[in-house]
Design brief:
Layout (H helix, E strand, L loop, with lengths): L1 H34 L3 H18 L4 H13 L7 H16 L5 H15 L3 H22 L4 H12 L9 H15 L14 H11 L1
């Protein structure tokens, strides 16, 4: 009996140590991502998250943040958007091999928009549908995720009124996002929790 208890205690200690190691790495990565300003710092933060993901093997969050970090850096005028997008898609693929969820589908949409913006007039026919399907998949995964409606609102907001867009059409989507954020709670401190202030800001612009 004592041997069984010892083994159980060792297993619990191993699990707790693994969790602590992962949590410590995620905390460090998020701090690094937040502080990153230059393209080098952005690449370093993304690489750190990717290494965490490769080490953990069963956690999708490191790959998510690696891609999100690169995506944000991709809006730098000097960045090669296509190169950034392709790396992001590789990272998202690793994450989705572990889990398919609304936030990963949202990131698919964001990366598609990034790639479309290289040449919007010609690329919207390719990447527009990809972005639209990604948000539809996100809603199927979790229709209560407020980031879905913020991103959908941004897409509509930036679409000319003559093509069914504009702030009047976008306003209900931003309002829905803001409303969902009132009761939204991330599963852990490391799960995505961005977008509330962005949605509120865009809603105010639609008034």
């Amino acid at each position: 009996m004592k041997k069984v208890l010892l083994i159980a205690s060792l297993l619990v200690a191993t699990v707790m140590n693994a969790q602590t190691k992962f949590e410590s790495a995620m905390t460090k990565g998020l701090e690094q991502m937040k502080a990153a300003k230059t393209q080098t710092e952005i690449a370093d933060a993304a690489s750190f998250f990717e290494r965490v993901g490769d080490a953990e093997k069963t956690q999708w969050l490191p790959y998510y943040y690696a891609a999100l970090t690169l995506y944000k850096g991709g809006w730098d005028p000097k960045a090669d958007k296509d190169k950034v997008a392709e790396k992001c898609k590789d990272l998202i693929g690793k994450a989705q091999a572990i889990d398919k969820n609304a936030d990963l589908y949202c990131l698919v949409q964001q990366v598609a928009v990034l790639q479309m913006m290289v040449d919007p007039m010609t690329r919207w026919q390719v990447y527009g549908p990809v972005a639209k399907v990604a948000l539809a998949d996100a809603k199927k995964a979790d229709a209560t995720n407020p980031r879905i409606y913020y991103l959908e609102g941004m897409s509509v907001f930036n679409t000319p009124a003559s093509f069914g867009g504009g702030k009047d059409k976008a306003k209900p989507l931003f309002a829905q996002s803001v409303e969902l954020f009132k009761t939204y709670t991330p599963a852990t401190p490391f799960h995505p929790n961005w977008g509330k202030e962005d949605a509120e800001k865009m809603l105010a612009q639609c008034n």
